Amino acid sequence: MSKTVKIIRPDADEMCPPGYHKVRGYDRTCKSGTKTWVDAHNAKNPTRKAMVYHGPNLLYLFWHADLSKFPLVNPVTGFSDFHEIDRVIGFWLAYWQSQGLEYPAGMNSLVVKALIAVESSFNASRVTGQTGGRGLMQLLKGSVRVLSGINDKNGYREVKNQCLAISLDEVLDPIINIAAGTRWLAHKYSLIRPTPAKTLFNTLKNYNQNNSEGEEYARRILDLYNASK
Asked: What is the pTM of this model?
């Protein structure tokens, strides 16, 4: 079992603020036939109504934040403390809420930490062959596609704002994984109807699957959470 999650700050040229994306250096051929080299740079995103975050944007947001305002939380019972991810979770929960997304009453960093314990046992590089889950929060390929805001085969777009245009490889980065996982939790909460059913339990259940297995999954997380408080 892993004892720590490696959180590595990327080089400055691997990050860029929201609204921009990274362009790698490339050879450009002018009309005259002259070849010139264009250095890597940040380029402004095409204008669109929806806010889209690329991996370098998520890294920029986290590493340029005042992380001291996000407290450490208790270890999850039965696991090492893994305090290195506490502020990552706290930051992303707060950030998505600042962008107008909502979570159920009771959602907090320790709940998400318990979810990570159940999903991956804090193994940031875990890739589950049977389900295709990736990283700490075991994001599925289909979930990543939905979060991108791309239309499905029927032309329906499930996520219309605060979209994440990230690759499956980027999902293995702990910062990006938790950004996407907490964004997915907010999305699953937004889908619950009617209002009386919009609970923490049902949000956790739907993060897994909307059936009896999902209910057992939610109970397992909440039992771990309550034992860890």
From this structure: 0.91
Look at residue 133 and give its three-state secondary structure: coil
Report which of 22, 58, 50 is spatially closest to residue 177, judged by C-alpha positions: 58
Q: Cβ distance 202 to 192 under 8 Å?
A: yes
* Cα maximum dimension of the chain: 70
DSSP 84: G
Ramachandran bin of 132, using left for φ above 0, alpha for ψ from -120 to 50, beta for the remaining angles: left
pLDDT tens track for 89-128 = 999 999 999 999 999 999 999 999 999 999 999 999 999 9
Containing structural domain, residue 223: 46-228
Strands 163-165 and 52-54: parallel
3-state secondary structure of 126: coil
**18 assigned to some structural domain:** no
